[in-house]
Write a structure and sequence with these properties.
The structure is a single chain. This protein is an alpha+beta fold and 116 residues long. It has a single domain (3-115), classed as Trna Endonuclease, Chain: A, domain 1 (3-Layer(aba) Sandwich), CATH 3.40.1350. 46% of the residues lie in helices and 18% in strands. It has a 3-stranded mixed beta sheet with strand order 3-4-5.
């Protein structure tokens, strides 16, 4: 597979993830769009408290991808949205470290108790 095809496939997936987040009420843009085409840092910039990497590759490297997301999010939560073949973005896998997942759950609990 050519490099430009892989980049295009990855860019399409990043846009799909952004559309999913926007449809769910979050603000999201690909970092390529935010930086005028330059790819650096997280793949998706959003108002979520999570650094998002988006991966659409035939071979899975969950630990490598998650390590990349964590490195790009020092002090923040990190997640990887992994494309599932023949599935929409809403059925993607989302991979996080367990400790960060529990931190996210604690944040949700605080919001719920503040609303009560």
């Amino acid at each position: 597979m050519s490099g430009s095809y892989s980049r295009d496939k990855g860019a399409r997936w990043e846009r799909d993830v952004c559309r999913l987040l926007v449809a769910s009420g979050w603000q999201a843009i690909t970092s390529r769009n935010a930086r005028g085409g330059a790819q650096m840092g997280a793949d998706v910039i959003s108002d979520l408290p999570v650094c998002i990497e988006a991966k659409n590759q035939a071979r899975m490297d969950l630990s490598g991808w998650l390590d990349q997301a964590v490195r790009q999010a020092p002090g923040d939560l990190a997640a990887v949205f992994v494309k599932r073949r023949q599935k929409p973005a809403s059925q993607a896998y989302v991979v996080m470290q367990a400790d960060q997942f529990l931190e996210l759950c604690d944040m949700a609990r605080e919001v719920q108790s503040d609303a009560a």
